[in-house]
């Protein structure tokens, strides 16, 4: 590809972080342990919160740190699998670990990878502060860093691979507008259940859906309902937050939920009030649960991001860097904090409604057998999932 298009995206600075860290893992108990015990605890927790990946070891050339396994099914079911496959196919030894939402573990894993001599570190940060500390340490040791999926604000990673995240939000905004219009709801009240304020992607998703919906609020076509972020994308907290929203504003007609996990939390609350199906909800990630909610008519749409493409683009970059080549990118984004351009690969998301759930299966992202279980078998058949 000879075309080196420069697509500059401006990232807004995320709002000040709310809520405390949920780091309660063994690493947090360091203070009460002696030095020797600390090393044992660190090693033990690395095994526990890291992975069982047989490739993890001192000679990995690339280190990958995924954020958690609870805020979205994607990290463990899709990202890990596709990254591992791509590294295996290239014969590159990679150490893929998961910080399980623990910022201290994230830093410890990074330290261990840097010490073990990786040439490239690929990270999905838990927040920009810890991400930045890791990037600076890596760079000081000559390790090249790729921000995977989430840009670390002010971090200075050499590369960034993700989707067009403003577009993801735009698809969510268009989706809720379409579903509300289809239901012929006049002046619908729309609530926002946003992603983590510490995740730059959540800021971008919101700017995407706000771009579509704000003009409708301003014109009086739609009415703006409650608007709240979910700390750390915590699905359980999302349920509590949405329950409170619905108590305070019982006439909510639609919910823009930033991903399938948050959407499912809202749907569970709506189910208790027998409102599911009447109140459209959005999502993202095309998880099995999200797709089932779409098939059931409880979720208006999900946004499919072909994680295989993202993993392939990132591994291609990492493998090239290990081999001493210059990384191949197709654009750049401007880090709003440092104002520097970060060479990037940005991929296209796709909206998934009931009618095209079958496309996600055809793409091999989920299988018919995991999606079309129990009551969903008929819904799959009715919607051409084969
Ligand atoms: C990712 C989403 C994911 C969310 C929660 C975001 O940064 O882009 O795909 O659902 O984090 O893990």
UniProtKB/TrEMBL annotation:
Q: Which GO terms describe its cellular component?
A: outer membrane-bounded periplasmic space
State where it is primarily located: other
Q: Which UniProt keywords apply?
A: Signal
Protein name as annotated: Substrate-binding domain-containing protein
Domain Periplasmic binding protein intervals: 64-326
What InterPro entries does its record include?
A: Bact_Solute-Bind_Prot2, Peripla_BP_I, SBP_2_dom
Which terms in the Gene Ontology molecular function aspect does this entry carry? carbohydrate binding
Q: What is the lineage of its organism?
A: Bacteria, Bacillati, Actinomycetota, Actinomycetes, Mycobacteriales
Q: Where in the cell is it found?
A: Cell envelope
What Gene3D superfamilies does this protein map onto?
Answer: 3.40.50.2300
């Amino acid at each position: 590809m000879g075309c080196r298009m420069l697509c500059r995206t401006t990232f807004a600075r995320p709002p000040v972080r709310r809520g405390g860290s949920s780091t309660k893992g063994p690493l947090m108990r360091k203070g009460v342990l002696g030095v020797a015990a600390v090393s044992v605890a660190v090693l033990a927790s690395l095994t526990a919160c890291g992975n069982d990946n047989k490739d993890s070891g001192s000679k990995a050339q690339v280190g990958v740190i995924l954020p958690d396994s609870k805020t979205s099914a994607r990290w463990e079911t899709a990202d890990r699998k596709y990254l591992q496959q791509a590294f295996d196919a290239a014969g590159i030894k990679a150490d893929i670990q998961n910080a399980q939402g623990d910022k201290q573990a994230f830093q410890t894993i990074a330290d261990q990878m840097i010490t073990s001599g990786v040439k490239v570190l690929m990270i999905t940060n838990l927040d920009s502060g810890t991400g930045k500390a890791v990037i600076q340490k890596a760079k000081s040791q000559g390790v090249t860093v790729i921000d995977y999926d989430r840009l670390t604000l002010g971090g200075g990673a050499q590369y960034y691979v993700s989707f067009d995240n403003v577009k993801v939000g735009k698809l969510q905004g268009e989706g809720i507008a379409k579903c509300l219009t289809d239901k012929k709801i006049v002046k619908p009240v729309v609530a926002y259940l946003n992603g983590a304020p510490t995740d730059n992607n959540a800021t971008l998703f919101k700017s995407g859906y706000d771009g579509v919906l704000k003009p409708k609020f301003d014109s009086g076509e739609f009415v703006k309902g409650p608007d709240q972020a979910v700390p750390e994308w915590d699905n359980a907290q999302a349920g509590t937050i949405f329950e409170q929203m619905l108590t305070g504003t019982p006439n909510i007609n639609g919910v823009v939920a930033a991903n399938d996990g948050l959407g499912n939390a809202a749907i569970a609350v709506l189910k208790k009030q027998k409102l599911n199906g009447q109140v459209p909800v959005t999502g993202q990630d095309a998880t099995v649960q999200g797709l089932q909610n779409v098939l059931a008519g409880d979720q208006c749409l999900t946004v499919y991001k072909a994680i295989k493409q993202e993993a392939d683009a990132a591994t291609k970059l990492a493998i090239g860097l290990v081999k001493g080549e210059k990384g191949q990118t197709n654009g750049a984004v401007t880090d709003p904090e440092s104002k520097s351009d970060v060479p990037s690969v940005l991929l296209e998301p796709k909206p998934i409604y009931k009618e095209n759930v079958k496309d996600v299966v055809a793409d091999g992202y989920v299988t018919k057998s995991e999606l079309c279980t129990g009551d969903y078998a008929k819904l799959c058949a009715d919607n051409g999932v084969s």
